[in-house]
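---------- Forwarded message ----------

FYI, see the ATP-dependent RNA helicase DbpA record below. Original note from H. follows.
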Amino acid sequence: MLTFDSLKISEELLKNLNSLGFKKMTSIQAKTIPLLLDKSDLIAQAKTGSGKTIAFTIPLVEKLEVKRFTIQSMVICPTRELANQVAQEIKKVCRHIHNVKVLTLCGGVPYKPQVASLRHKAHIIVATPGRVLKHISENNIQLENINYLVLDEADKMLDMGFYEDVISIFKALPKSKQTALFSATYEDNIKNLADNILHKNIFIEDDDVHKKQKINQIFYKVNEASKTALIPSIISSSKANSVLIFCNRKVTCEHLADDIFDLGFDCVVLNSDLDQKQRDETLVLFSNKSYPIMIATDVASRGLNIDNIDLVINYDVAKDEKVHTHRIGRTARAQNIGVAVTLYDEQSIHIVEDIKEIYDDIEFKDIQSLKDDLSFNLQAKYRTLYINGGKKQKLRAGDIVGALINQAGLKSEDIADIDIFTFHSYVAVKKEFELQALKELNRNKIKGKKYQVYKR
């Protein structure tokens, strides 16, 4: 495998990549980064979890002129969840450069603050199509210096009906820009988009798109009324510590969450009714292992950058084979092995048949073969604390760690993920230290300032 130090990038960027744990390139990174550094246009077919975000981010950061305080790069994503995660990844990769401003423009959040932020300018824009097009139509955004455009998960964008929006955005940008299009599939709609926006491009196909992910797929034929009762057995038989359950409707998610809670499990729910802050918090609580189960509609099937999901359960069969593929792709990320269980009934047989055409290694089992391991106890290892201060207050992860160690008496191994947002932050601690940490953080100051801290 090629290493990042084989690339023609600055020493500072290389050191930062090493500090982030990036040493060897994935297949898609090795194939695309040199071409993107050479300012080539390209179309890259790569699966979720292949490392594509780093692939298009390294050239973006390397060509950034931080002293030119103007928008130089734009990344378009299909969902705000993916846009937020891409923005966070970009910030990590360019953290060795002072005063880089990465601005996220997504729908579902207040519009006027975005207008104000655009007046103060930025270096990099990460956006969803509809919202950035609205800013373009109202002349809120300066486009003349953009030299690098990335369309991430372009197939999902087209599935969501954003074809015309993407074309309009592309036409509004300078003609001399470099364009990179990343897609999990390369079907006719992607070819059509590429033909309309790219003329001299290189097509890159990741070797892994033809390799089956290491997912053990098991299908159980069940009656609708018995599905919920099977959940504990499915979890315990898989020894899963992190479980993502998909339902087709929001109301099903809510009812299932109530039933799961009554069965003794902690869970969170992710659906389109949540505002951005609620979505962010839900994802934080699940990803940092404070809640071992997340129940979601298909809003969560693309764009989630959460590793170490042991088990995906399709409580409802997906509407088609493409959605099924996206769902089960949440597990077996980063070369891990995962398990995906699908519960189906007579009414969904036709979709199951379509799924079988793609996956020839599905195991169809009788529910009688499912054994509940009563010795397995799914419990969260961590608890999350909410702090009413974030980036606007110049609060950093190191400040929170220092307060927990010096004031609350925790050790570094007692502290897990820290997520810092604009006005608030989250820190996960081992659950046996939750009350101790809560008490001491509320009693003392963090970085010389008093904050309110709450349990989540």
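H. also flagged this: The chain has three domains: 4-210, 215-369, 382-455.
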